[in-house]
């Protein structure tokens, strides 16, 4: 309900001119790659809001945010005003209460405006959902409203210098001392790290392996919490990535999500949705790249004709469109399975993340190739989409780990 009101207001604002991206978006909407095909009227409505926001508030700045490594916090808060700060968080704590499929549709659309910024919003949403779902009523009401408005920003802290793919081997320790845990250790590659306010930290309260892991919510300003230098990255430059360091950080026991030992399960449940979200961000980048390639083939002439009249390039464009639609169907199918709580959801989310992030990277790469030398220039958006989605094959579980999860589900049956 909160959504309809926000949608209506935003739809009115979105009726104004968008510029280049909107023109491209309209062309896509009339074609076989139309991302609104098969959606309900309500879904089409908030998808349009997200496309409008992407075109108006993000696309004009995406190159500058990348170049100058700007974390656009004010834009994030504007996105939150449309309900994008807690898309699948329950409405009683400020969330939009939408489904996983709805969320995927929104992230796909937003990502056409700036993939890196949207990917951060997706991580923030994942953290907010973890607190909403596994937190007590007190924790939900304490943290979720300011996360949904993005007044406060969140980071997800699982990876450590010595534990990446083997996340259950993490070493950050939390020893109970009265009403607090004393946290020691460090996390690597934390998205938003240093600039965010709320850290959802997986740490060891018990013995080795996944069952010894708990999940604590840590607030910026806690004595003993510090950050490493900002990492220099290939893409995802509109969001900072830093190490997060804990030195005798006292975290109230009241900030633990779930029971001791449930942290790894909570972290993995967060990631199931996270994988759909990150795959959706890849879809948006690939969608934008297909439109850019389509336009370039039409405008650029070689051998006396537009590139578009070359059958080889026509076939490659057709392949890109086919792969995009296939990837989108995979992602939406997995989102639906997750929403329904189906047993096959974990494997389907992994399959969708594997397939969509690989296929979408290939699509962006082919789109860049179609631009020739221009595609390699920073004046052309296609190179940024390519750089921004490369990391989607690595994080939230590498695509090798996705294969492990799918194989495990097949062989354990
Ligand atoms: C920009 C960026 C942002 C990130 N944001 C976050 C964040 O917000 N929070 C967070 O917790 N983490 C984050 N990460 C960390 C990310 O999730 C990890 O980098 C990822 O899980 C891989 O871990 P690793 O880098 O240690 O690689 P490793 O685990 O060392 O793997 C190296 C390579 O070996 C492969 N490999 C490992 N084991 C196997 C196996 N058994 N079989 C086959 N292949 C295998 C991997 O797939 C990979 O290709 C981020 C990373 C990056 C780059």
Automatic annotation (TrEMBL):
Active site residues according to the UniProt entry: 396 (proton acceptor)
Family matches, as SUPFAM superfamilies: Acyl-CoA dehydrogenase C-terminal domain-like, Acyl-CoA dehydrogenase NM domain-like
EC number per UniProt: 1.3.8.5
Residue stretches making up the Acyl-CoA dehydrogenase/oxidase C-terminal domain: 261-411
Listed Gene3D superfamilies: Acyl-CoA dehydrogenase/oxidase, N-terminal domain (1.10.540.10), Butyryl-CoA Dehydrogenase, subunit A, domain 2 (2.40.110.10), Butyryl-CoA Dehydrogenase, subunit A, domain 3 (1.20.140.10)
Enzymatic class: oxidoreductase
Family classification: Belongs to the acyl-CoA dehydrogenase family.
Protein's UniProt name: Isobutyryl-CoA dehydrogenase, mitochondrial
Native species: Crocodylus porosus (Saltwater crocodile)
């Amino acid at each position: 309900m909160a959504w309809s009101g926000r949608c209506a207001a935003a739809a009115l604002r979105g009726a104004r001119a968008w510029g280049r991206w909107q023109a491209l978006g309209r062309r896509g909407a009339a074609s076989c790659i139309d991302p609104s095909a098969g959606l309900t009227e309500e879904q089409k409505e908030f998808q349009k809001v997200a496309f409008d926001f992407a075109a108006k508030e993000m696309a004009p700045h995406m190159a500058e945010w990348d170049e100058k490594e700007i974390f656009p916090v004010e834009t994030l808060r504007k996105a939150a005003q449309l309900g994008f700060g807690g898309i699948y968080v329950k409405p009683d704590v400020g969330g939009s209460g939408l489904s996983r499929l709805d969320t995927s549709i929104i992230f796909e659309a937003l990502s056409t405006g700036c993939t890196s910024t949207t990917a951060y919003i997706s991580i923030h949403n994942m953290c907010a959902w973890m607190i909403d779902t596994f937190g007590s009523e007190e924790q939900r009401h304490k943290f979720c409203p300011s996360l949904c408005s993005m007044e406060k920003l969140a980071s997800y802290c699982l990876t450590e210098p010595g534990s990446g793919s083997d996340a259950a081997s993490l070493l950050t320790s939390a020893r109970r001392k009265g009403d607090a845990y004393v946290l020691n250790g460090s996390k690597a590659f934390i998205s938003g790290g240093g600039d965010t306010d709320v850290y959802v930290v997986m740490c060891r309260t018990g013995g080795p392996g996944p069952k010894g892991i708990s999940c604590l919510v840590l607030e910026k300003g806690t004595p003993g919490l510090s950050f490493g230098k900002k990492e220099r990255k290939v893409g995802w430059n509109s969001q900072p990535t830093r190490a997060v360091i804990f030195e005798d950080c006292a975290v109230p026991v009241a900030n633990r999500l779930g029971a001791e030992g449930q942290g790894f399960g909570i972290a993995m449940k967060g990631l199931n949705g996270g994988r759909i979200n990150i795959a959706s961000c890849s879809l948006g980048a690939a969608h934008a790249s297909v439109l850019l390639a389509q336009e370039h083939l039409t405008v650029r002439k070689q051998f006396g004709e537009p590139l578009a009249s070359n059958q080889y390039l026509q076939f490659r464009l057709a392949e890109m469109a086919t792969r995009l639609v296939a990837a989108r169907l995979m992602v939406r199918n997995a989102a639906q399975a997750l929403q329904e709580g189906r047993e096959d959801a974990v494997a389907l989310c992994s399959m969708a993340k594997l397939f969509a992030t690989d296929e979408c990277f290939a699509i962006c790469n082919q789109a860049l190739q179609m631009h020739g030398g221009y595609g390699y220039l920073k004046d052309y958006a296609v190179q940024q989409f390519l750089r921004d989605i490369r990391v989607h094959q690595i994080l939230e579980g590498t695509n090798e780990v996705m294969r492990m999860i799918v194989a495990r589900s097949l062989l354990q049956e």
